[in-house]
Amino acid sequence: MISPQLPPVGIAGTGVYIPPQVITGQEIAARTGLPDFVVLEKMGIRAIHVAGPQDTITAMAATAARRALDAAGLDPLQLDAVLYHGSEYKDHIVWSAASKIQQMIGASNAFAFETYALCAGAPIAYKVARDMMRLDDRLQNVLLVSASRENDLIDLDNLRTRFMFNFGAGGGAAIFQRGLARNTVLESAVRTDGSLADTVVLTPAGDEPRLMPAEMGTLHGRLDVQHAEYMAERLGAVSLANFTGVITEAVERSGYALGDLRFLGITHMKASFFREILAAVGLTPDQAVYLDQYGHIQSVDQVLALELGLAQGKIKDGDLVVLAGAGTGYTWSATALRWG
Fold first, then answer.
1. pLDDT, tens digit, for every residue of 3-61?
2. pLDDT confidence of 263, banded at 50, 70, 90?
3. Burial 295-331 (b: 16+ CB within 10 A, else e)
4. Which end of the chain is more exposed for a tag (fewer CB within 10 A), N or C?
5. Does domain 186-338 have CATH number 3.40.47.10?
6. Domain boundaries of the chain, sorted by first residue
């Protein structure tokens, strides 16, 4: 629960960038040989957006950041920190995207750093930023920014990776503001099952083609699955409990009961599991946004779901909202918000 001795931290503005180029679910089905109903209905992929050559990680992140700054009514010089929490598949390897984004948006008064938790990254970054800001009065305005184009890493001929065929591209950003008593960032919860740490890895470069033009980076390889049977068995046993566990813990640590929850912004996943999670936390599909027109954009999903939920009238002033995700490794995370 929020301590009365510490100031609130609220979301002053958000921004999203989605590349215009689209691959439809029917195209994915034709390319993979899977039936249309499997891709469209079971996997829940109506379309994914894919990055063009100009859509580097930092370009997409910077566009989303500028939109969040506009929404917050802030100048980039008012930012005190830039926290990048997106894909490690970025313009270059062993390299700080956060510093580049800081330079691209003109936030020269801000320091820049990165956190990384794959597709569980957004709620964890929200926790990191919120906790830092409440304790440090030098941090008045902090940009949290993310981007992903990990669909580049998927080989559609490799059916071991079919649960990742939903990977798309885009960028997302949120501005956290110290002392802002609206759109309040509340408590978070995180769980990790390290027995799944080695299940999804990038293949060695070998003869794999370069994924991006030379001026944008040097990464080779594709995502692949090891120990597939164990992964399926273990996730089947623990994933629902861990999702509902972190959602419930974030709500209860914020001083509420699960019955107070009004909206869930959660990463894209197969349609049946999405509905199962909603039912388990007492929500209906009308109290969430299913990202079947976007796919899974790593830690962009949460701010995208938040913006869509607001645009569709599913989030109202005073609503208790939870943003949740899970990332290979395997980590589950959730952060509660009091909107309005």
1. 558 999 999 999 999 999 999 999 999 999 999 999 999 999 999 999 998 999 999 99
2. very high
3. bbbbbbbbbbbbbbbbeeebbeeebbbbbbbbbbbbb
4. N
5. yes
6. 9-181, 186-338
* 127 CB-side CA count, 13 A: 22
Task: For residue 90, give Cα distances in angstroms to 97, 112, 223, 267.
Answer: 7, 16, 15, 20
Report the C-alpha gap between 209 and 318 in whole angstroms. Answer: 50
- Common-topology check for domains 9-181 and 186-338: yes
Q: What's the chain's Rg over C-alpha atoms? A: 19
End-to-end CA, the chain: 18
Tokens of 161: 């990776």
Distance from C-alpha of 57 to C-alpha of 92, rounded to nearest angstrom:
10
What distances in angstroms separate CA 150 from CA 62, 154, 295, 322, one per listed residue?
18, 7, 11, 25
Reply yes or no on whether the pLDDT at 2 is more than 70: no
- 182, 13 contact by CB (below 8 A): no
Q: What is the CATH number of domain 9-181?
A: 3.40.47.10
Q: How does pLDDT run across 303-338, given as a tens digit for each residue? A: 999 999 999 999 999 999 999 999 988 999 999 999
Q: What is the pLDDT of residues 177-206, one digit of tens each?
A: 999 999 999 999 999 998 888 888 877 655
